[in-house]
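User: Assemble these into one structure.

Assistant: Restating your components, then the assembled model:
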Amino acid sequence: MARLRAQNHIELLQGTLDMLILQTLQWGPQHGYGISQTMRINSGEVLAVDTGSLYPALHRLERQGWVKAGWKTSDSNQRVREYRLTPKGKRQLLSERSRWEQIQAAIAGILQKGGA
Amino acid sequence: MWRFSRRREAELDEEVRTHLAMAERDRIDRGESPDAARAAARREFGNVGLIKEVTREIWGWQSVERLVQDLRYATRSLRRSPAFTLTAILTMTIGIGLNTAMFTAFNAVILRGWPVENADTLVLIKAEGVDSLTRSGFGLDDLRHFQQQSRSLAVLAASRLAFQSISIDPDATGQRVYGQFVTSGYFDATGVRMAMGRNFHPDEDREGTPAHVIIISHVLWQRLFGGAADVIGKSVYLAKTPNLFIAGESADPGNPPFVIVGVTREGWRGGQPYRDDIWLPMQALRMFRPNDPLFSIQGTCCAQLLGRLAPGVSRERAAEELTVLARQRATRPEDKQQRVTVSGTNMLERTTGPVRLGIPLLVLVATLIVLLLTGANIAHLQLARAMARTREIRTRMALGAGRARVARQLLTEALLLSVVAGVLGMAMVYALLDPLMTVAEMQMPEVWAPDFTVFAYCVAVSLAMSIVFSLLPALRSTRVSLAHAVGHASTPPGRPRFNLVLLSMQIAFSMALLTGASLLSRAFLHATTGDVGYSLSGITTATFWPTGSSQRGPVTASVLRQALEQASAQWTLPQTALVEQLPFSSFDSVQVRRPGDEPREGHHLEVARMSASAFAVFGIPLTVGRAYANREDATEAVVNETAARLLWRGESALGKTLLVAGTGYTVVGVARDVYYRSYESIGPMLHLPVAADANPTVVVRAEGPAITAQLETILKGLDPRATVMVRSLSERLATRLRDGKAAAQAAWAGGLLALALATFGVFGMFAYVVEERRREIGIRLALGAQKGQILNALLRTARRAVLGGLTLGLLLSLCVGPLLEQVLLGLSPFDPIAFGIVAVILSGAGVLATVIPARRALSVAPAVILKQDS
């Protein structure tokens, strides 16, 4: 059942989650936990990213070459796996953002019509 | 790949660990207690194993680790259900093995030409008369005529089958080998090179005084000489066998040694059936068989002609030219109509008429049937298993296995099964091919052992089977909606349509095959122990090959008879007789005429020449009259009752005259009809005294070492250097029945394999039915139903297929008998015992196929079954 939930979330957020991760990494390399925390804080505690979706997504992005992973020692002297945006990832982020904006505009249009 | 995966695994582990550690520290920083922080962090993170699994999945799924895991899992799960595993593997093994064996045999026997270079220009030349009886081959004169006149053939040669015993040492017992008497162009035509030595010179095949030279095969060189380098120039001795079917006699010291001039290249053992080991000059045939029809019947017999097409000449053109040439030489009017055919060396081309299309079609159909049956059986088995595993699969899906993963694991299982079956099938091919080839009187040339093509075929078949028939049911069982999740309703995912027709067909097919096998075995038994009208047991035979150079002159039949009579008088030798044709050997047919008959009115009778005492020794009663005078030159004859009826209808045969090849014989007695020529039927038979110059076999009604020694002493006394072979008649007959025995064995093998397939089919189907109704059975048992009732209800499903199959099988079996009549050695084609044996075997198989799954279903406590579903 747990598996099912994880899967559903990935499916639901697939494109969006990828974009959000890429966006988060735009300000500098971060590790997985850091990404989830940043996203949680930046969304005003609304979006709690499911770890079950986050790690598969990170690894998927890495496989696609949009992010690059490397081991770093953190401030608290702990070895962490940091993800960094690649140039290819930057381009992907741009295209996903514009796609997102189109969708947003489209949805907004529909909602306005329906609401009026 | 492996190291990469291991590294990544470790990284993932560490990544998750640091994530948890950081989350935990954050919570402690916010003031939570360490224990609570750890628990909360874990809760928040979720199922660590699952997340790792999902993340791992991102990194491709063909990792070695995954494969090893799947394989290990597959092995475990297959081992857990040994009945299924065994049945599935056996079914596939039989399917693959049978098909590959058939394919290999078909390829080797039918499709391939002789193993020579430029095989497409090597042709066989055959005569086709108006009817096939008038012309069967060519004589040496035809060969010369063709050689002189033909422009379409570059090389022409003739060969004639030899069947000799060969040995290096004149006193040693020989080895039986096949070979050919060939004209000197034989090796030029076939293009076979010598590994050592040389080809025959043309002048070695002189008429009248052939050179005593021999070429041996590479195989024989290895076997007889151990591959010794100095074999060229060595001598071998060949036995002079008047009867082509006697085996294992010692070399005939009366013959001059043959000098080895050549050893053929490896892999060459003559044309089909590829078992030749020696080649001798054609003219040397006179030495072994002076009366061979090749010399006596000019023109129509009996050499096989082969040749190489001249460049650019088609077979059709060559055939036209040779037809014209053959008709030029024809003297008889019917021969003016004859045609000459020119064909390639593969069997398909050599055969004509419906057989030509029939053989490949038969093989194709048989192959398809076997495939279909195996496939259907596997499908049933897999379906039953998939159903039984529905719960397991659902559980695994609920625990986080994806559909693809489950399907992949099932596929791995199927692949594992088919790989094992493929290997076993290949082993079966090797085990099957030898007997198969022996039955077909073919020996596989070593070079044609199952090759890569066949192996690829084998593997392809096994893969296709596993994918089609294992993955489909597997996929279906994973299509379980998760709403139905773990518990709840084991409604089967749709009821598969059983191919009852296929199942019936299998049963029918195996039944027919088994009936054939059973009949053949019974026939063999019947022939060895059955009643032939006289007594075959307790008779010793002695065959004697004099050298012809004893001081007392040639040992003729008269000399032999007198010596034996003398011995009988002096010693305690029981009554002896001389026989030219032993029972069930090959007989000549002669044309006999009554005085006043037109030449065309003659009747054909089988001739058995035997001394007068032979009737007493064999115990063949004379119904009327007496045996002829005990002399070789007596012009008296005995006919059997059938012949008497044929020739004189109601009249008494006694005192009548018969003209046999110009000599008049007076019929002095009528022998009772007995099975002398064959086991199957009694034909018109003519008994004549042994010819004075014949080389008859001595028969005596006694057995044992004493009589053997006595006979040897007498015969050696006549000619010390003669070859003597003393054996009991039953032993000789058993040798002659060997082919029938081999055929029976092959039929048993085929029948039992077919039965195994059918049994697995019924087993698979029945197992499915039982599995499908497991819940129902549980409820019924819980409600107090009798086990017998339930069993009955279950059996009802299988009953239609089984009854249909048995009915069809019975009909087929009734057709099998008459088809086999030729080889049943006189046994009734509807022999009740043979049919009874089949019935017993079939019921045994039926019980096996149904009782095991049924018992398993009934033996489970109802509570357990019901609990599984709640």
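Residues 403-439 of chain B form the longest helix (37 residues).
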